[in-house]
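User: quick one, sequence for these tokens?
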């Protein structure tokens, strides 16, 4: 009898040890908001479809935020007149640790002139707010298909090259990617810091963005609110994600899908599967005059907003008041039951009243909408 009891104890002990080892393999990572000074942002969102949960941050919290260290990849097309404005906004931004790395991924094409290269290199050499590194890619022409391949190659190098950030190992954590023809708000890094904590605590939320393609607002814009929204389009001007997202892209049809715009291709691959988190008040200002357009050949001139979206707000974020708005939102931040969503580009991702309450011409305005059962702050009523 004693031998039988002893055998049972051994079996139970072995079983508990296996469970402990199995759980540890999920790389569970708690997020401690109290460690907010000079914080390295991290956390794996998903790996091989296994959920890796982290402790969700409170939706409103008292912050002792000072700075964060986060690698940045800046896609550079040797358009120095634009990049000078981006670098100026990064220089003046709040909360970026000087030991952060700025990786300039510069693409040479036949239209790039020697003078453009010289002036761009001078700008990079003058950067003091981060540690700089440059990689150069070649393209035969300037079009969406070439950019898609370049984007893929740069992201691959970011997460697979052991020496990309001088660590001697591949980088698994969150990276901030920026286009060269944008300006960022002074509080953009604070917003990234907060949104990454929420992103890294939710399985379906895989990336953060700083605004729409041109920096548009959502409905009920406010400096202290963010939303988790449906991802039909990826926020392709200023965004952050980690290596688990790259592995998902690598094993997908991203390069073969017949959509040449990389951000649209990514969105279409993940329709209904994943979400992104974005601020309700745009934190980017898209200043590039030439867009790729529907033809993808870079011949479309686009309308540039005379002022950034955040200039319509009386202030920027207060980290003691910042909060995540209720529920999963549609493309433009509207709140309704997802079962009531109506089609947009053949995908059900828009509330029934979105088009009438928030038409395209109002995307840079302050549009306050009341929803039954929830309350959103809006600049127009909650300054």
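Assistant:
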């Amino acid at each position: 009898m004693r031998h039988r009891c002893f055998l049972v104890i051994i079996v139970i002990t072995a079983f508990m040890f296996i469970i402990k080892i199995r759980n540890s393999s999920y790389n569970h990572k708690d997020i401690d908001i109290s460690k907010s000074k000079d914080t390295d942002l991290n956390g794996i969102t998903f790996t091989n479809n296994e959920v890796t949960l982290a402790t969700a941050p409170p939706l409103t919290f008292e912050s002792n935020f000072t700075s964060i260290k986060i690698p940045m990849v800046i896609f550079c097309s040797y358009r120095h007149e634009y990049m000078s404005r981006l670098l100026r906004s990064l220089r003046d931004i709040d909360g970026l640790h000087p030991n952060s790395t700025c990786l300039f991924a510069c693409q040479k094409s036949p239209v790039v002139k020697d003078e453009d290269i010289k002036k761009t290199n001078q700008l990079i050499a003058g950067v003091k707010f981060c540690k700089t590194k440059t990689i150069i890619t070649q393209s035969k022409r300037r079009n969406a298909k070439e950019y898609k391949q370049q984007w893929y190659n740069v992201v691959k190098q970011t997460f697979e090259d052991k020496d990309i950030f001088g660590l001697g190992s591949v980088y698994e954590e969150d990276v901030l990617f920026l286009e060269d023809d944008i300006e960022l708000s002074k509080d953009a890094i604070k917003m990234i810091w907060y949104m990454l904590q929420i992103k890294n605590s939710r399985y379906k939320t895989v990336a953060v963005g700083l605004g729409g393609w041109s920096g548009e607002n959502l409905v009920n814009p406010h400096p202290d609110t963010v939303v988790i929204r449906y991802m039909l389009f990826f926020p392709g001007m200023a965004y952050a994600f980690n290596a688990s997202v790259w592995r998902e892209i690598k094993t997908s049809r991203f390069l073969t899908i017949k959509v040449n715009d990389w951000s649209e291709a990514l969105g279409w691959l993940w329709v209904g599967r994943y979400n992104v988190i974005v601020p309700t008040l745009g934190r980017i200002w898209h200043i590039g005059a030439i867009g790729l357009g529907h033809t993808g050949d870079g011949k479309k001139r686009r309308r540039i907003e005379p002022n950034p979206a955040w200039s319509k707000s009386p202030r920027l974020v207060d980290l003691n008041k910042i909060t995540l708005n209720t529920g999963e939102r549609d493309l433009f931040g509207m709140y309704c039951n997802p079962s009531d969503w109506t089609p947009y580009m053949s995908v059900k991702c828009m509330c029934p009243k979105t088009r009438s309450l928030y038409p395209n011409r109002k995307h840079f305005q302050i549009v306050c909408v009341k929803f039954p059962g929830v309350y959103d702050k809006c600049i127009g009523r909650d300054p």
